[in-house]
Design brief:
The structure holds two protein chains of two kinds. By secondary structure, chain A is mainly α. Helices cover about 80% and strands about 0% of the residues of chain A. Chain A is built from five helices and no strands. The longest helix of chain A has 22 residues. Chain A is globular and about 45 Å long. Helices cover about 45% and strands about 20% of the residues of chain B. Among the domains of chain B are: about 180 residues, no CATH class; about 150 residues, Rossmann fold; about 140 residues, no CATH class; about 130 residues, Galactose-binding domain-like (Jelly Rolls), CATH 2.60.120.260; about 80 residues, Immunoglobulin-like, CATH 2.60.40. The model of chain B has no long low-confidence stretch (mean pLDDT about 90). The longest helix of chain B has about 40 residues. Chain B is of the alpha+beta class. In chain B, the strands form ten sheets. An eleven-stranded mixed sheet of chain B has the order 15-39-43-42-17-16-18-36-21-25-24. Chain B is built from 36 helices and 44 strands. Chain B is globular. In chain B, strand 42 and strand 43 form a beta hairpin. The chains are: A mainly alpha, B alpha+beta. The interface between A and B is large, with 40 and 37 residues.
Amino acid sequence: MNKIVIKFFISTISIAFFWGLESGFTQRNGYELIKSIIFASSFFIVLTKKYKQYILWISTFLLISMIILYLLWQIQLSDLLGSIGFGMFFIFILSYLPDLVRIGFVKDK
Amino acid sequence: MKSINIFKNNFPQFFIFLLVSLFLTISWFRSGYIYGGGDVGLQVYNPIRILELVSYIWWEATGPGSPTPQGLTALPFNYFFSGLKLIGFSPLMLQSTLFFLILFAMGTGMYLLILFLFNENHKKYALLAGLFYIFNPYMMIQVWHRFVHSTFFISAALPFLMIYWLKWVRNRKPQSLLIFLIINLISLYGFGTIAYILTLWSFLLLITIPEIIFPWGGLKNARRVSLLFFVGFLFWILTNIWWLLPIFKIAPSFLSEQHSNEQTLATIYTLGYQTVLPYSLQMINPFYLFSQLDFGSSYLHIFLRIIPWIFVAVIFVGIIKGLFNPKSAKWSIVYLLVLVLSKGVASPFGYFYVLGMKYFFPLGVLRNPFEKMGVLLPVVSSIVLVIGTKIIFDFFKVKTNIKLANLVLLTAFGLIFSFCWPMFTGQIFGKFDKPEFVDVPKSYSEADQWIKADYSSDLHQNPGKILHLPLTKGESIDYSWEHGYSGLESSALFFTSAPSISHGFNLAQVDNALTSLYQAFHKSFVSPDTILRLLNDFNVKYIVLHKDVKLQGGEFYDPKQTEEKLNSLEYLTPPKRFGDLVIYKISDKFFRPKISLTNKFVLLSPPDNPSLWPWILAGDRTLITDLSKNGEIEKASNAFIFPKKSFSYEEASPSSAISLINQLLINPNYDNLWLSSLLNLKTIYRANNEIQGEQLNDKLISASKKILKIARSIFVDNKIFSLSELDDYAEEMKQILSSNSAVLSFYAKDKTISNIFQVHLYLLKAIAKKTPVGGNSAARAADDLKKNLVSNNFISENYAEGEIPVLFEKTVLKFEIPKDSNYELLLTHSSKENLYQERYEKMVVLVDGKLNNLTLNKKENVTSLGVFFLSKGTHEIDLPIRYSDNLLSNKQEDVKIESIKDKLGYFEDKISYVTGQDRYKVSFSAKVEKGSGFYIQLVQDTDSRGSNNQVNYQVNEFISQPSGQDFRDYSFPLPDLRLTTKDAAVRFLASSPDGGNLVSSSMLIRNLQVRRFSDEEVFLQDFGKTEPDMPSSGHISINQKTPTFYEGRIQISEPAFVIFSESYHPGWKLSLQKENKEYISNTHFLANLYANAWYINEAGNYNFKLEFEPQNIVNYGFIIAIISYIALVLYSLIVSFKKEKV
C-alpha cells in the first residue's frame, strides 16, 4: 500500500516535470497540460507494472491513428495523437531501464 | 593486412556499393553540368582559389574582409581537390568524383558498422542497411537536396567514426583512436557547420554511456570507459586545436552580431512545425516535399505517402523486440533519444531546446535540430531497421519458408528504396523539373584574366579591390545565366586577381557602409567627387558591372542606370566589355592605396543606419570614430555627432487621454478597441510562431486589463482597491519592461504601444491622486513605469506628464556628446522639399527638455538651427515630425468597397512622387458594414512573386473591425519602401480571412491620406574648433606578404593617421620600429565607418608591420596538432611492438 502511495506521489510530481518538458509551464494550444497528465498517468502505470502492457497497446493504437490521420492530411490531429502515443511509448521503453542496467537486455518471460 | 582481409571477405558487397555509387553519379551528371547555388554556392568551381581563402582566417578576397575562422575546416578537402584540379580535373569531374566518394563511403561505412555491431553472419542485413543509408528520405531531402556540403561529409563519416570510437572505448587500442582522428581529419569539412561538433560529441556520448551502464559493469569499468572517453576527447581537441581555437575565439562575438537570441527562438519554433512526429518519424521535411513540391506532385499521392511507414513500422518492431537481445537492446534507447533530439521543439518533450537556447546562447547553433541533430537519424534508423528486419525475416522464415521470407524482404526494401526515385533519375538538386545546373559564362574567366593581366605588376605593392555592382546587401544573388543561378554570391571565386567587394556580411557596421557605397551611384545629391572619395575609402581599383543580375524584389538598381552613371565619371577609364560584364578602372592618379596616411580628419559619432551624409559633409577629410573614447577628439579639426538612438512617437494630450480614460472606465466593451493593436499583433505572432512575442503581447494585454480593473474599482465603483492587485500589475509591468528588454525591443516595435503605455501612466497618476491608501504605491509604480519607458525608447525623457505637450508628434534624438563644447544643430536638406507646404523659418525644438524657438539658417547642403553649449554625456533633442501634403492622386471623400460572391472588391489609390526608401504615414476612417474587417496592402512595382505565385507585399495586414460599428480612425506609419521602388499605392480589400474562401464583405473608407515623412537627417557639429588642417606630408610604401601580414615604411613630418582599408577588427595590430625601438600602436580607431585607423603622434621614419594577430593561433595550433598526432603514432607503435613481443 505504502509503495503505491509513493508511486502515486512521484507520478503526481512528474506532471510538473512533463509539463515543463512539454511547454515550459505555459498553455499554447491547450493540450500541453492534458498531455502532461497523460504522461504522468502512464508513468504511474509503468511504475505499478501490473497494467504496463496496456501502455504499449494504447501507444501503438495512437501511433497507428497518427498514420491514418496523416494519410488523410489531418496533420494537426495526427501530431496530437502521435505525440501522445510516442510519449507513452517512450515512457514504456524507459521502464525497462532497470533490466538493461542489470543484465544489458530484457529477459523474455 | 587486416584491411585487405576485410576487402576480400566482402568484395561482392563492396562491388555492389561501387556499382550503385557509380550509377547514381552517372545519372546525376549525365547532362554535363555541375550543380550549385543555395547556401553553398560553387564549392568545386575553383578549389585552388578556395584553398587560398581558407588558409587564412581573415578572408581578404571577400572585400572589405572578414574573419572567417570556420573556413579552416575546408583546408584538407580543398588541398586534395586543388591537387586534382592541378592535374586537369574540370569542375564537373571534381564534383562527380566528390559525390561518388561520398556515396560509396556512406554505403560501405554503414555496411561495416553493422558487421562490427552484430556479426559477420549479418552480411545480408548489413548490405540492406548500407543501401538504406544511401536511399532514405533524410538523405534524399536533407542531405543531397539541401546541398549543404558539410552534411555530405558528416553523414559519410559518421559510420566510420562510430566504428573506430567504439573500438577505442571497448578495446583501448590507440590505433583505433588514431584511425578515428584520421577519419575525422578527412571529413573535417563537415565541421564548417559548427553545430556538427555538438552533434558528433553528443552522439559519441550517447553511444559511450551504454558501454558503461548496459549492463552496469561496476565502477572500475565505468572509470575505465570514462577515462577513455576523456582521453579520446582530449586528443580530438589537441589534433583539431588549430581550427577550434580561432573559431571559439572569434566566432562567438561575430555570431552574436549576426543572430540574436530572439531570432534563434523564433526560428526553432517555426521549424518545430516541420518536425512534428508524423514527419520526423519518416525522416521527411514537408517543406521541400509537400509545400514547395521540389520533387514533384507524385509525393502527394497516397502510395508514396504510405511507403515510409513501412520502414517506420520495421524500426518500431526493432525497438521493442531488440530490447530482448543483448547486442541490440541499447540501440532501442539510443534511437529514441536521437529522435527526441532531432525533432526539436515539436511535442513531446521538446521544450528543453527552448530552455537551453534561452539561457545558453551558443546552443543557438542548433536552431535547426532536424538538420543538425537529424543527421544522426539515418545512422540509428539503419541500425534499428536491421534489428527489426532480422526479427521479421526470421518470423516469416519460421512461419512460411525461406523463399517467401526473402521475397517479402526484397519487396519491402524495393518499396522503401523506390521512395527515393528522384535519386535514381538525377532529379534531386533544385526543382525536379528544373535542376540547379550551373554553367558559369566564359566571360567571367575572360574578365578575370583581363584584370589579372592589367594588374599583376602592382598586386603586392599597391593592392586594390574590385567593386561588383549591383552590390547585394545579403550574401546571395540571382543571375540570368543559361541555366540560371540562385545562391551564394561567388564573385570572390570568379575573380582571382584581386579581392572582390560583392556582398554584405550580415554585420550592421560593414553592411551600412557598403549600402552607402552602392547608393552613392544612384542618389542625385551625391557629387562625382564624393563617389570618388567613397571608391578611395574602399580601396577600389576596378568596378565590374554585372548586367546579368536578376532584378527581383527591388533590392537592386537597374544596371543600365548604373552604367550611365559610371560612363559619366571622368576618373574611370573607358569601359571594357566581356559578355554581360562591363569593367571600369580607376585611373592610376585617382587611386588611393590600401594603406594610406592622413592628418585631415573629422571625428564622427556615426548614425545607426546607412547614410551618405557623413561622407558628403566631410569632403576630403577622413572619418574617424573614437571607439575606445580615449580623447583623440582634441586633435580633430571638426566633429560630426549623429544621434546614437532615434525614435518617433505621438505624445498624448491630457484632454484626449482623459476622454479616452473616461470612455474606458464607463464602457468595459471599449477595452478591446483600445487594445486592438495588441490583439492584432497576437494573431500575427501566432501565425509566425513567434512565441516570445506572443507571450510578451499577452502580458501587455493582461497588465492593461489589470490597471483598468483597478481604476474602475476606484473611479466607477468607488471601492478601495487591494494593494496586492497593484503589486501584481507593477510586477507584470516590471517583467515586461525591465527583465527582458532585448525581447521587448525585438517585438514591441509598434509605436502604438507607446500610446497604451501613456494611458497606463495617466491612470497610475490619477489613482495616486485619488486614493490615500495605496497612493504611494501607485505613485511609485508610475515613476518606475516612466523610467522604464524612457530607457526602452517609448517616450521622451522630457515627457509632459499631465501637461499639454509642446510637441505632439515628435522625433526624439539621443546624442552621446564626447566633450564640453558649443555644438551647432544641423539638418541635412530634404530630397523633396517641394512636397512640404509647411516651410520652416522657425522651429520649436526641445534641448534636454528646454524649449527653444529657433530661426533656421540655410547653408550649403545643410540648415542650421542654432548653437548650443552641451556638456560631455548623453543629451536629448526633440524635434517636430514633418509631414508632406496628402500624396494620393484620388482625393474623393467616401469610398465604398464591396466583395460579392466570386468578385473581390478593392480600392487602390496611387501615391505621387514616389522614390525608393520613402516613408509614409497612412491615416483613414473605416466602417465595416458586412464582414469582420478588411485588408490593407502596400503595393509596389518591385513586389515579387513567391514560389506559389503569390505576390510578396511589404504590407498585407488584416485589420479586424466588427461590422455595424461607427467609423473608426486609423493612423500608422508604413515601412520604408524598397530601395528601387518607383511606383507605389495603398490598397484596401473588403475581405476577411477564411481559409482562402472569399467572404461577402462591405466597407466604407473616409478621409484617406498618405503623407511622406521628411527625410532630413539631424546631427551636431562641434563648433569650437578653428585650427586649420595641416597639409599632409607623409609617404608610405607597402609590401603585402599574406592576407594577414603587411610591412613597409612610413615617413611623416608630423603626427598622422595610418588608414588601413580592410574591415575594422581589434585583431589587426600595427607595430612601428624607429631606431631599433618598437612601438605597438594602441590607439585603434574606426575609419570611414568600416575600416581601421591608428594614430602616430610623433613625426619620423618608421618601419611598420601590420598583422592580423589571431592568425598566429592557427600556426601554434598546427604545431600542437602535429605533436599530438606524432605522440599517438609513437604510442600505437610501442603498443603493437609490445604486443608482438608478447
